[in-house]
């Protein structure tokens, strides 16, 4: 079984990818410093797979610690690099924390990959690199724009670092996946998004509000130029997104990839925030307490992906509906509540 190193593999998207990698016949090795996740994520992975997955508790900005993992885990075939901080608001308040962790971890990882001649990388990028796009849907040719947060800028800078490396003639081949809005949880409800503190993302806020942990959801603005005035996003089920990483690794390992390639990973469909709320209500039968608030500075009014390139070249396809994703997020919320006193 080919070993794939998964940094941030105990996190939200990482944990789902670890499960899909095992199911596709790979041997994932996790690296995580548990700055934004908990032990129960590993327990959830083990419960789904019926066995534990190796996890190294180190920080990815630490070159010496990374080196030790590469020495210990001989024969790593490729790396998927999820480890990063991702809270947009926090990145505005603490930019250096974000540049150090998100850019620093990529540079450290690339140095060690070069040293150990591990040449295949899948990188977690984001549709945030497109800023407020002039045209929709967004293709990979849509111009990248000035980032509107330090977090977004770290993704843009990381893409530039990877492009410079490809141009330099390095042996490292990279696929950068530009995620749209990942939501939902594994159908087993044993892993999911684990927001520590007040959630930054819509769906955990929805599920926590429905569960009575938060009093009310605020939808930021209903006067945008969209069908119901609320912002449009492309909500992609996290299991579908996880599978995109498996096909990206397949492509890198069969040497079909260029030095660097970028792929949008979304559903190709835009839904408003209000439609997402209604999908949650339909899927779960729960009535959500929400209000409309003022616009939030920095929000992109509408964005959704053109996924033709990922479909044709990676063989990526989505299988889950918005309702299914919402139901899975709700089942995960219920699981968290039922098990929280045991953790
Ligand atoms: N969730 C989204 O909406 C979204 C959208 C676009 C891109 N992304 C990107 O996808 C990746 C994964 O996101 P996620 O939603 O799973 O986030 P997450 O916070 O759940 O997972 C990231 C994991 O990385 C770990 N980590 C962070 N810094 C580390 C370091 N220096 N060393 C070791 N471990 C470290 C955290 O503990 C966490 O388990 C990130 O790079 C994120 O920027 C996420």
TrEMBL record:
Catalysis performed (reactions)? UDP-alpha-D-glucose = UDP-alpha-D-galactose
Q: Which residues form a coiled coil?
A: none
Tell me where in this chain the NAD(P)-binding domain is found. Answer: 5-327
Which pathway does it serve? Carbohydrate metabolism; galactose metabolism
- Its GO biological process terms? galactose metabolic process
- Asked if the Swiss-Prot or TrEMBL record annotates the protein with the keyword Isomerase, the reply is yes
MF terms (GO), sorted A to Z: UDP-glucose 4-epimerase activity
Highest taxon of the source? Bacteria
What this protein needs as a cofactor is: NAD(+)
Q: Its Enzyme Commission number?
A: 5.1.3.2
Q: Which of the seven top EC classes does this enzyme belong to? A: isomerase
This protein's record includes keyword GTP-binding: no
Which terms in the GO cellular component ontology are assigned? Answer: cytosol
The entry's keywords: Carbohydrate metabolism, Isomerase, NAD
Q: Which family does it belong to?
A: Belongs to the NAD(P)-dependent epimerase/dehydratase family.
Subunit text: Homodimer.
- Protein name (record): UDP-glucose 4-epimerase
> Which species is this UniProt entry from?
Pontibacter ramchanderi
């Amino acid at each position: 079984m080919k070993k794939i190193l998964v940094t941030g593999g105990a996190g939200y998207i990482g944990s789902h990818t670890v499960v899909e990698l095992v199911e596709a016949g790979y041997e994932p090795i996790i690296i995580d410093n548990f700055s934004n996740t908990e032990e129960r994520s590993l327990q959830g992975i083990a419960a789904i797979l019926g066995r534990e997955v190796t996890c190294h508790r180190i920080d990815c900005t630490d070159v010496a610690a990374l080196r030790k993992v590469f020495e210990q885990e001989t024969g790593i075939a490729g790396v998927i690099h999820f480890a990063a901080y991702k809270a947009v608001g926090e990145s505005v308040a603490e930019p250096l924390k974000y540049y150090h962790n998100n850019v620093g971890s990529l540079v450290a990882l690339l140095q060690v990959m070069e040293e150990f001649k591990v040449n295949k990388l899948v990188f977690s990028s984001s549709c945030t690199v497109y800023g407020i796009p002039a045209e929709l849907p967004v293709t990979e040719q849509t111009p990248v724009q000035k980032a509107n947060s330090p977090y977004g800028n770290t993704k843009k800078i990381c893409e530039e670092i990877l492009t410079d490396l490809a141009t330099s003639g390095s042996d490292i081949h990279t696929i950068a996946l530009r995620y749209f809005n990942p939501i939902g949880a594994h159908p087993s409800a044993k892993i999911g998004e684990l927001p520590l503190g007040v959630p930054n993302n819509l769906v955990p806020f929805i599920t926590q509000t429905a569960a009575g942990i938060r009093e009310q959801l605020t939808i930021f603005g209903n006067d945008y130029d969209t069908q119901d005035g609320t912002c449009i996003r492309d909500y992609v089920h996290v299991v579908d997104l996880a599978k995109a990483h498996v096909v990206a690794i397949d492509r890198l390992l069969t040497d079909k990839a260029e030095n660097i390639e970028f792929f949008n990973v979304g559903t190709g469909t835009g839904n408003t925030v209000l439609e997402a709320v209604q999908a949650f209500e339909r899927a779960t039968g729960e009535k959500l307490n929400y209000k409309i608030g003022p616009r939030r500075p920095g929000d992109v009014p509408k964005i959704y992906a053109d996924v033709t390139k990922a479909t044709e070249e990676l063989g990526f396809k989505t299988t889950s509906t918005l309702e299914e994703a919402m139901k899975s997020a709700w089942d995960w919320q219920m699981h968290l509540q039922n098990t929280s006193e045991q953790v």
